[in-house]
Amino acid sequence: RIPAWHCSCGEIIVAREAPQKCAKCAGSELTQDTDVLDTWFSSGLLPFTTLGWPEKTRDQEVFYPTTLLITAYEILFFWVARMIMFGCHFMNRHKQDSLIKQASGWCEKKDDSVPFRQVYIHALVRDAERQKMSKTKGNVIDPLEIIQRFGTDATRFTLAAMAAPGTDIAFSESRTEGYRNFANKIWNAARFMFMNVDRVEPGLRPGRGESETRPHTGIAGFQPVTLEDRWILSRFNRVAKEVNEALATYRFHEAANRIYDFFWGEFCDWYIELIKSRLRRAEPHNALARLVAGEDPNKIMAELRSNLAEVISELGPSKMADFRSKMEQFCKLLEQHSPKVAWPEKEFDDEMSKLRASVAADREVAGVACTNLLALFEASLRLLHPVMPFITEEIWQAIYDGKPPLKSIALAPYPQADEKQFDPVAETQMSILQDLIVNVRNLRAELKVEQKLKLPIQIFAHDPQIRTLLEQNINAIERLARVDNVTFVDESLSNLPASRHTAAFDVHVVYERKIDVAAECERLKKELEKIEKGIASGQRQLSNKQFLAKAPSNVVENLRKQQQELAALQTKMQGKMQELGCS
User: Which residues are CB-contacts of 346 (< 8 A; sequence separation ≥ 6)?
Assistant: First the structure.
């Protein structure tokens, strides 16, 4: 109850202990106020009573007001509003320490009586159907069980990625499972990096002699020597800028999703695949080059014997005699010609010098690629750390070989964008290259081409500069699109089957697949009928006003999306039937 007593004379007495008489009239008929102070009353006093109020203390000067309050919307009136009202009343004319105020970035604020500068209202976690969790409904999700099944990082990332302002989180285990796969992707990328660092440049890891952390702006030590280097450097800085802006405005879902798209979609799926050929150049590709590189001759000979034994085992008894005969012929030719070959000593030395220079150049190319990979990965881990702290800490410690310059990655500077490293030209060029590779992959999938089979393609570039760009990156196109020959033509390819037309190029996959046209038409006809039935059924439901009034909004939305997907499939099927001339 409120510690206030009313006297018949109208006096109100507030005291810790029950008074015996009125201080004004000395009357003893005192009645305690019947109202009560609920728990929110004392909670509303929390911001300043914990700092020594009503006395003026140094703690108040330093810690009041605080920067941020995080809460849910259902207690805004009960708690947040009361803290603000009590703070503005009891801490009126309070002044925060000017140095603390300057360091926190609130110098322009004149009123220091409010208990906090900002309030972040977080979402409520609901079940997958957006129902509030309840024991009676049986839809309560145990976070410890989720963490046990999917890991802490995946659970944390799920909540961050779904924390859009103004909406509750419909927690989905399938999303968490997807982010566990993301954690596995990060781990596998780290294994790939360590494998190449130890193979190409064993002493490359930082921390062995470095006493300072890497700068927080851009990526220090990154050498952009190729298109993919310039592209990924620009993309990292652009993503770092977007993530910092999102975090500053508490849009955690945008920050998490930008990091996810960059790490998986750009860093792992594209950049790592593009630099694999450069990393492999650290390995000499023939026995002579390996000898020049200083590799043990016995090891090379053992591998050659092993390869020969593997070839022989694959031949089988029927081809073994023919293979033995050819090997005998080769040995006789070798005996006949080897004494006659008199390779001048100077020519031999020149050839060896060229080979050594080639091996050294290849190692240098691989070394630069490896250095860039390590620097980019380290910066990406710092960018990812707030939403996936455990896996990033583990890998970051391993990068520094257990001797990091700071105790934890959490103490390392958070990456900031260096606008000098932005390269819109490289981003545009890489977008064209990616578009070509993706279109070829999609055409292969539509033609049902086997994954291992390489096919020739034809390209019509709409601009000479685009043709030059594609010619300079033929190796990447051949490797990532599974192509064995690229031919540039001077006429449009848009009217050919198995082709794609874009604003920058036309591409045609040269592939003749023998099919039974009648059987294929029959199959497509059945699929089209099935799609049309689905469209008709969906349209009936969406035109039913009773269904729309009673069905949950997410069910209606999913049905509309399904109708859009079916309409796209219908158009695709009709196009295929038209190509085959089906009646």
Answer: none
